[in-house]
Amino acid sequence: MSDITEQSLSELVENIKSKKLSSSEATNAFVQRSEKSKELNAYITEDYANALIKAKKFDEKPNLNLKLPGIPMAVKDLFCTKDLRTTAGSKILNNFVPTYESTVTQNIWNEGAILMGKLNCDEFAMGSSNETSFFGNVQNPIDKNLVPGGSSGGSSSAVAAQLTPITIGTDTGGSIRQPASFTGTVGLKPTYGSCSRYGIVAFASSLDQAGPMAQNVKDCALLQEVISTYDEKDSTSIDFKRNEYSKELTKDIKGKKIGIPKEYRVDGMPNEIEELWKKGIEYAKDCGAEIIDISLPHTNYALPTYYIVAPAEASSNLARYDGVKYGFRAEGENLIDMYEKTRSEGFGAEVQRRIMIGTYVLSSGYYDAYYLKAQKVRKLIKNDFDEAYKKVDAILTPSTPSSAFKIGEKTNDPVSMYLNDIFTVPVNLAGLPGISIPAGHDAKGYPLGLQIIGKAFDEQNILNIAYAMEEKINFKKNITDWWIK
Amino acid sequence: MSKNKSEYLINRHDNQYEVVIGLEVHAQVTSQSKLFSTSATKFGAEPNTQVSLVDAAFPGMLPVINEYCVKQAIKTGIGLKAKINKRSVFDRKNYFYADLPQGYQISQFKDPIVGEGKVILDMPDGQKEVGIERLHLEQDAGKSIHDLDPKNTFVDLNRSGVALMEIVSKPDLRSPDEVNAYIKKLRSIMRYLGTCDGNMQEGSLRADVNVSVRKKGSKEFGTRCEIKNVNSIKFMQMAIEYEANRQVDLIEDGQTIDQETRLFDTKKNETRSMRSKEDAHDYRYFPDPDLLPLEVSDDFIENLKSEIPELPDEKKKRFIEKFKLSSYEANILVSDIETSNYFENVIKKSDVKLATNWIIGELFAALNEKNLEITESPISAGNLSKLINLIKDGTISGKIAKTVFEQMMEGDKDPKKIVEEKGLKQESDPKALEALIDKVIDDNRDKATEYKSGKVKLFGFFVGQVMKVSGGKANPQLVNEILKKKL
Predict the structure, then answer these.
(1) Nearest alpha carbon to residue A322 among A336, A302, A333
(2) What domains does chain A contain, in order, with CATH numbers?
(3) Which of A211, A392, B354, B446 is deepest in the core (most CB within 10 A)?
(4) Chain B partners of A339 at a C-beta cutoff of 8 Å?
């Protein structure tokens, strides 16, 4: 048996089920490694002692029929966890301890997994580099100076560095897929309505979706199978027939039609990305898929549309953080003064920027020009995909227009930061599932990802394509444990 | 239309002004739980004991629509003869306040659940139709309490998230009296439907009042002012009178009226500026992304239609046609569902005409005196029915019945028992009466002679004497007949 923390989720599950490994041994191994990896700053809140107690309890009476029997894992700090601090990466929730559990995490614990702690993320998931977190940067285990992507940067870093065998993130405009791409891991953004948003700190309600992040496609499929449930507590949750994604996973994708959208060849895209895409097309062909050129004509408008819709919803969603009921409060002369001080001190610069943008686009006199128009464009973008899916079963694109960038490189240039999400944002606007899989390295040796976009509720299909391509790509991780002294 | 003597006009110098009023009524939906959460809605509970995580807007909490509240709103729409919108949208109305935990109120802005409808008012000079612009569902806010502490404000979130129906009238009302009739009619309809208890003391029914004035005959509306959150009909009427006169004075003074939001000070009986149009909030309405558009099917609406009881207008029509009541009587009896139920229970086994008179006359007066609602009436419908039958079959006279009635008011006793116990039964035996009458004539020989010589007025004196001697129990009709013969 290889080192415990090097095992994939599937291996861990198998070893625990066959009693070659106890939950305590597994939990202890990941806790130990997490303890030694503080430099990555992947965790905001650690709950190791409780995790070990829970693991011991599991071992005393192990239920081996569960899907995640005694598996330790850490989750993005956007999921509310009962009795464990949940910050959303913000000072304003620095002291917030929920009395309730998110549906997605509850589903995970119901299948036997054990919570190790809460992972770092951009403040309220607003960011593409994890640099907006109140709790500091996260380092990419690929290189000390690289961002791990964002907003699920703590999650991507923790999975890549094997501090947790799997994790969950949230993806509003690319926050699972982009960090997965930056760290050489797999990340799935499910169809909007697939995973309940109940108990997830909201960023932009019409776009937010939780999803699995893992070392490989199979693990990702298993975790998706666990977290995706219909939930009456979320009015946007959709009651559709969910597959047992891991059981139905197949590499047989012969005859699947995969579309290549010409609009994703954007100006200034590094040649390496173009090459990666071409290689991806070849891999897909090798797997027996048929490649078809398609057009998604409104792609260009996706980013500006996203940066109206998401901030608009966020400006309203974040109004509840006002210092009155919970979380951080700055004392003020009167109510208005208290609001202003609390929100000025409690929110970071990027969150404030987005609240201002959102407030502006919703204000009277601008609503029609911005918000309403953005909603119309959003519909056109969705129509583009609907048209394309008349011809193809899935769409293949690069996950990001570049590999991971350096910490601090884009913090003063928000637009350049926003451009990072150019390939992922349209998927959220259309509510579709998308998966990023590691597909190669650039000249600097940094990982690059490919994105497979599916039809709504067709997670199984893109997981299958990813599974088949993963084998052909045979991605080699090159992570040294540089941060462990 | 009321275009005659009851017209409400304000006179200044040579000018006559008409008052134009539109109401936005906030009616609390009768429901066990809130609009988007399962918390209870009981009035008067300890502060912050009926608050869920959703109501307090904890992170990650999501609203889920309460189907019962939707049904209640649609039923109300049907009661207002209004268009039911099969697709409606919940929007967020954004503003900051300590008792608004979400930082926004979930309401309906562009696409309300109920569209145009109407309410018929019975005014002294005829019927008047008031247009309904729309009805939408929205959340109530919590309550800020400023007077418990010199420095701090306390917040009670029990009301936070409670379902309200905002019912917006067209600017069709023209006087404080019409406003009174409108609110009462609206309240009556909702109480018939069971969709709002209409309890103004508990805040279940409150209104924002829009007032403008214009010269009589003018077709254009004047600039309006909105008087916020007035919670009794009396205050609404006082506020309108004050506000209309204030506006007329401004116009007469050559000034213009600023469109603004005003408050009614109930102590000083005046309205005061709260905020001007320029200071008006920008609520940044947008569709709530946590909620899908609300879609209801034809079947859903049809099912609700089948649950609608007979409403006051229809009931009135039936009472007039079937029971030959006057419009005045019918109006009184149908104004409240409890009253009409009481009436219908009484007439199940007794005479309609007598029942109508006794309920509208004696019963209402007695209840009024004791400050009781009809539901609290000491006299049950069954016993009132028995009393009426005792009158009808001649067992007791109307006069005696009043005595019995008074005793019934002290506790719901069977009138038959009272009559028996107190020996109040009417004397209708001709022989017994003849004896009585003979004695009275005998005792008043001189007067009998005067009567016979033409002083017919004295007849009343003899009737009175006979009744007196009989202790009020003599059957007045028979007394009349026998007296005539004997004299």
Answers:
(1) A336
(2) 9-263+269-296+383-473 (3.90.1300.10)
(3) A211
(4) 96
Question: Rounded to an integer, what is the distance from CA B298 to the centroid of its chain?
Answer: 31
CB environment B228-255: b (16+ within 10 A), e (fewer):
bebbebebbbbbbbbbbebbbeebeeee
Interface of B with A (CB under 8 A): 53, 56-65, 92, 94, 96-98, 101-104, 153, 155, 282, 284-286, 289-292
In a domain, B457, yes or no: yes
| Domain termination site, one of B281, B305, B329 | B305
ipTM for the whole complex: 0.97
Q: CB–CB of A327/A92 below 8 Å?
A: yes
Give the chain A residue nearest B96 (alpha carbons): A319
Instruction: Convert A458-472 to b/e letters by CB count within 10 Å (16 or more is b).
Output: bbbbbbbbbbbbbeb
CA distances for A485 relative to A34, A36, A39, angstroms: 13, 8, 10
How many independent structural domains does chain B possess?
Answer: 3
DSSP single-letter state for residue A299: G
Q: Which of the residues of A are catalytic?
A: 76, 151, 175
Residues B242 and B327 reside in one and the same domain: no
Contacting residues for A475 by C-beta, under 8 A, at least 6 apart = A184, A437, A438, A439, A440, A447
* pLDDT per position as a tens digit, A213-254: 999 999 999 999 999 999 999 999 999 999 999 999 999 999
Q: Spell out which residues of chain A touch residue B102, defining contact as CB-CB under 8 Å.
A: 319-320
**Among A48-52, B148-152, B256-260, B466-470, which is the least confidently predicted range?**
B466-470
Predicted pLDDT at B5? 58
pTM for the structure as a whole = 0.92
A396 forms bridges with which residues in the sheet? Answer: A452
Mean pLDDT of chain A: 97
pLDDT tens readout for residues A175-193:
999 999 999 999 999 999 9
**Nearest CB to A93; choose among B59, B96, B290:** B59
- Tell me the CA distances in angstroms from A482 to A28, A29, A36, A142, B119, one per residue in order: 21, 18, 11, 9, 78
- B444 and B474 part of one domain: yes
